[in-house]
# Entry
Amino acid sequence: MVASTAVQQIRRALGSQLQRQLGRGVSHPGSMENLSPCLKQAQAAARAQVDHDHVNEFADLGVFTILLNNRSVTELELV
# Structure
């Protein structure tokens, strides 16, 4: 099973139990000693909001997607 598929299934099951939508980001693979960067990558992927129905993988996102995709039209016009 692909990691993002497993994450998707876990996210849906847990979200159903908690009765709320959960974040949806996956980091690059890493070790427990390297947990902080992995967590930050997963959070950035979740905030990118590329696809509301699927888990976003950090490795699949470009720099502009990570930085700009969750901005409003007004914020983008200011940039």
